[in-house]
Amino acid sequence: MTTCVLCAAPDASPVQLSPGDDVAVLCATCAVALTGDITPGPRWRCLGDAVWAPEPATQIAAFRLLKALPGETWAVDLLETVYLDPEVQARADAGQGEALAEVTHRDSNGALLAAGDTVVLIKDLPVKGSSMVAKRGTAVRGIRLVHDNADQIEGKVNGQTIVILCQFVKKSA
Which PANTHER family has this protein been placed in (predicted)? Predict the structure, then answer.
């Protein structure tokens, strides 16, 4: 019985990771998720181990699934720490960049924002779901871009990760 290289589920079968010649043994759920039909949840925590596997095909499959979970803070944090061999990284990114390149994030002044930038809040912002207020003038370092929404970024304010609308920030020099 063959098991999935990502989640160890039984009844897995070889799946071609296009473009390229990489083949990973995946269960039906993981194979469908690689096509873009992925539902966030705790099921994907297995990717934390799989992305460090010695086999390049396993690394590629895990990396692509982690990239498909931009709303999961743990997945974004894990992607920031993952190091893949440059050749493996290129194969993992192949075909993935076109969808992400369409969305651009701009601050209140129209300046282009990039992941890792530092921004400053231009308005007091009440944080939904908590009593915290993010004060005007607060610097938010190391922002993350919400890849499917050009109006939103993520950042840590007072140790809490929050979603911030781009119209309420200006890029720090």
Answer: PROTEIN YJDM (PTHR30305:SF3), PROTEIN YJDM-RELATED (PTHR30305)
Say which amino acid occupies 159: G
Q: Quick check: helix, strand or coil at residue 147?
A: coil
Which residues have a Cβ under 8 Å from the Cβ of 44 and sit 6 or more positions away? 33, 38, 65, 66, 69, 72, 75
What is Dmax (Cα atoms) for the chain? 58
Domains, the chain: 13-99 (no CATH), 103-171 (2.30.30.40)
Residue 14 predicted with pLDDT over 50: yes
Beta strands in the chain (DSSP E): 13-17, 22-26, 105-106, 112-113, 119-121, 125-126, 133-134, 139-140, 144-145, 152-157, 160-165, 169-171
In this prediction the pTM is 0.57
